[in-house]
Amino acid sequence: MSKTVLVELSDALADAAESAGKATVLVNARRRMPASGVAYAADLILTADHVIEREEDITVHLEHGTQVSAKVAGRDAGSDLALLKLESAAAHVAEVTKSPARLGQIALVLGRPSTNGIEASLGTVSAIGGPIQTGRGGMLEKYIRTDGISYPGFSGGPLVAADGTVLGVNTSGLANGAALTIPADVAWRIAETLAKHGRVKHGYLGIRSQAVEIPGNTQKALQRQQPSGLLVVSVEKDSPASKGGLMVGDILVSVSGVPVFHHDELFTRLNDDVAGKSEPIEILRGGQLQTLNVLIGER
Amino acid sequence: MNFNGTFTQVIHELVEQVMPSLVIVRGHRFGAGAGIVWDANGLILTNNHVVGKRAPIVVLQNDGEYESRLLARDPDVDLALLSIEATHLTPLRPASVSPRVGELVFAFGHPWGQRNTVTRGIVSALAFAQNRHGDTLPIVRSDVPLAPGNSGGPLVNAYGQVVGINAMIVGGDQSVSIAVSVANDFVNKVLVKKETESHSRQHTPADVI
Predict the structure, then answer these.
(1) pLDDT above 90 as % of chain B
(2) Burial track A162-185 (b if 16+ CB lie within 10 A, e otherwise)
(3) Domains of chain B, start order
(4) How many cross-chain Cβ pairs, A to B, lie less than 8 Å apart?
(5) Which of A135, A185, B31, B124 would be a feasible disulfide site paired with B141, CB 3.0-4.6 Å?
(6) A151 neighbourhood in chain B, CB within 8 Å
(7) pLDDT, tens digit (0-9, with 9 covering 90-100), for A163-179
(8) Global pTM?
(9) How confident is the model at residue B4 (pLDDT cuts 50, 70, 90)?
């Protein structure tokens, strides 16, 4: 029988489901519905934080039904990601995409919600966006949305490209139950932090601020096009901001050399990388640009 | 490669290949479903739940309407085999291998009465359903959005071979088709029984009408 392009596409999709399916596991850490996970390392499973409802008696089912006990190695409620440590290093490690998701590309939503095997639905990448504030009090710098169906128990499973590589981790825990995908580069970076520290540190300044327009004449002092910054309206006593010399009335315009226009960007900048470190913060004070070195707090 | 042209052309050819085998199965009182031409000499396969108390009318693609004979029905596998007085029909071929999760599938039927509709998806899962006796029935789940009127129609693969008989819409988004292996077994059993009966002139068993 002749292999038409349709057959070739069909075979490629089934191959992709099969190869990524090997790295897609069942996570048993809540009472009713099991969830899914994806193997970050042979002994580490990345899954959604909200599906971990107990820290004791967690089991993971691997590709051929092998059941392995697991412990929580780290979790980050803000990004809805958790890392599980397997008792034995038996998982088939997922292959991560080298090229990030593109709008319109076809993708498989994969999960292992039962011991019967892998499950999948087909969709296209319908939006790529971010940063957004998650429904769990965190900040996601980037997200992917697809029109594929996330069946019950799919949270924690991978979004898979037609070549079988992982584009991201799916979860219904970030946007009021709607499915969202955490892009692989973001998810893997968080997983790395969770593997090292067990949690994701969040930077902390201790200011309240309001986004304000930067007037044209002041923009000259900035020497760049930046329409808005953050007006400091209060500084907590003894906070990292206060110790670093930030004052009420300053307009914060950049952190670590990256311009900040709105709160979301400030929130994104105050991430795990800068927590506990001294970082340059640019401010406009009295119409003049100044740089303060602030030791970013950690919490 | 002229990907766009080739791809569209191939899908068109698949539809052209499968469509002649799609029929309407219409009850005498209400409702209609789909059916599949199973052999060239008038065997039509459909869902048991599409068939009412009397043998239904079968409408072919050329609009020819036929009174059917109900050869057999089995509520446990939700299948029924009809026969119509027609020859030189175009039957569909069943797939010889089990489908794979992720492969492309196309459902042919008449959802919500919309005649000759093709709907695309992939195989979501290979699963089992349980009948009232507790027996397990292999089913093909897909992300194809099936609707009433798809029942009894074929779920075909990229070759245009039958991988399932579209059966029912269960809660949630996953559609269910009865695995074609079940259909093969059902039809073969009926035909073998028919064969032995015609030789031995036995009385018709209860499950063969």
Answers:
(1) 68
(2) bebbbbbbbbbbbbeeebbbbbbb
(3) 3-91 (2.40.10.10)
(4) 84
(5) B124
(6) 124, 172-174
(7) 999 999 999 988 877 89
(8) 0.84
(9) low
Beta strand residue intervals within chain B, DSSP E = 22-26, 32-37, 43-46, 57-59, 65-67, 69-74, 79-83, 104-109, 117-130, 136-142, 154-156, 162-169, 175-179
Contact yes or no for B64/B44 (Cβ under 8 A): no
Inter-residue contact A166 to A48 (CB < 8 Å): no
What is the ipTM, given to two decimal places? Answer: 0.86
Of B14, B124, B127, the CB nearest to A120: B124
Q: Write out chain A residues lying below 8 Å of B3, CB-based.
A: 5
Interface test with B, best of A3, A8, A11, A13 (most B CBs within 10 A): A13
Q: Dihedrals φ, ψ of A248, to 5°?
A: -60, 135
| Contacts (Cβ under 8 Å, ≥6 apart) of A32 | none
List the single residue in B with minimal CA-CA distance to A18: B101
pLDDT of residue B203: 47
- The string of pLDDT tens digits covering residues B110-158 is 998 899 999 999 999 999 888 778 888 899 999 999 988 999 999 999 9
Q: How far is residue B209's CA from residue B207's CA, in Å, rounded to a whole number?
A: 6
What domains appear along chain A, each with residue ranges and CATH number?
1-195 (2.40.10.120), 203-298 (2.30.42.10)
